[in-house]
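Hey, I'm writing a tutorial for new members on how sequence and structure tokens pair up, and I'd like a real worked example in the thread rather than a made-up one. If someone can provide the structure for the chain below, I'll link this post from the tutorial.
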Amino acid sequence: MRRPRTQLVAVLVAGVLVLSLTASIGLVQAVDELEETDGNSVEIAVVPPDDLEPNESAPATVVVEGATEGISAYELTLSLEGDAATVGDIEILAEGDSGPMTTIDHDDDEVSVGAALLEATHDPAEEIDIFEVELEGETDGTATLAVDDVTELTDADVDRYEISATDTATVQVGDGNDDGGETGLSASSPDDDDGFDSGTDPELDLEVQNVTDDEAHLEVTATNPGDEPLERTLDLESDGQSVDTSEFALEPGETTTLESAVSIPADASAVDVTAMAGNATAETEVEVEGDDSTPTNGTLDLAESQFPSEAEPGDQITAEATVTNDDSESHTASLAYAVADTQTTTDVTVAPDDTETVTLEVPY
């Protein structure tokens, strides 16, 4: 029985250029927005070390609670406050023949972790350990390790989970570390003082007002649906990078409108814009008319792709991907490709102002 034609899709997952052969028709140059899971919400907890002494190290574990549909990808940021400890190495708790593909960025007091798990997808479970943060004890005392921002958390079907609560853990170092630290979930909010309620998040609406060649003007409407006043910080991101923040406060039932703008790179055909306040998010894609450039990871572009229009089970599929580098420096990207359940990755390095053609072969 003949299967449907395959198509080549280029997407950016956790900072890695990904090619995927999927059973659909036609060439897709953009990815639909992720859908939220139907009624599924999760909590993200931080479990501190049982024992941490000065000049020693021990891991804290980030745990997703209630992921009953599994986990396929995530991107989040932790922050450490206090002089008693610093952030060390990160260990991703997932293994597979293909994946995970990760991006990790950290300094002494903050860490951002992104992972596209591919074949290392976590199975459904009430509690899933996703990664460990090695903490290094500096001096006797305490520090707090908090989940600051959750940009992405998707289930096995690549639908986005709703984040109902995040965690702040107290890490005790040295003499004060008798009980292994304290931890407690709370509704996520950047502000929690002056009598404002931290348990209610605003309703957000994000609209594009107008787009020029190099800038998009946006309008964010925030409404307080609760019975208590709230105060929040609005964070506006463009393609995952923070571009603007602003504070706002709302009485019950009150609505406010905030205006901002994001820059559009000269070689971009579209940018993904996200507005966040507490656990509330609103997203939109800003398209640039008349620009048919292919998806890009910021340094390398997928310029052209060729593959069979049809395939039979048992066929060896050969696809070619042409990658260009318009930068003045050489760059390397991880190229992942998949047919049905078979996924493979390879690295491609492109010299400045040069082009490389990669041949991808995988059984169908």
